[in-house]
């Protein structure tokens, strides 16, 4: 089995690290405290970083969603875009 080490990249689908985006889908995840949190479409988020995640997932982003203790981090990648038919967020300034 071949291992893959993720590699940081500059941009993904026109988005860059540090960019504020608005989620177009409901997102769910666990906080650092283990609480299950759901955020509705329309929630602001921040792209933390962009990486090449390997041949199965392709390139993707880690997105910080929510505020304070209820913050979650979700990863969205090329495989998600193929499944959803679109990037799951848009630029906040659109």
Features:
94 residues; mainly beta; 7% helix; globular
Give a description of the structure.
- With 94 residues, the protein is mostly beta strands.
- It has one domain.
- It is 7% helix and 46% strand.
- It is built from 1 helix and 10 strands; from the N terminus they run βββββββββαβ.
- Strands 1, 4, 7, 8, 9 and 10 form a 6-stranded antiparallel β-sheet that branches. Strands 2-3 form a two-stranded antiparallel ribbon. The protein has a two-stranded antiparallel sheet with strand order 5-6.
- A hairpin with a 5-residue loop joins strand 5 and strand 6.
- The N and C termini lie far apart (43 Å).
- 19% of the residues are buried.
């Amino acid at each position: 089995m071949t291992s893959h080490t993720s590699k940081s990249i500059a941009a993904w689908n026109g988005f860059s690290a540090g960019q504020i985006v608005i989620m177009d889908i409901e997102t769910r995840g666990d906080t650092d405290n283990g609480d299950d949190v759901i955020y509705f479409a329309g929630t602001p988020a921040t792209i933390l970083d962009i990486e090449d995640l390997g041949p199965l997932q392709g390139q993707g982003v880690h997105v910080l969603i929510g505020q304070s203790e209820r913050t979650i981090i979700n990863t969205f990648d090329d495989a998600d875009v193929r499944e959803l038919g679109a990037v799951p967020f848009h630029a906040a300034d659109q």
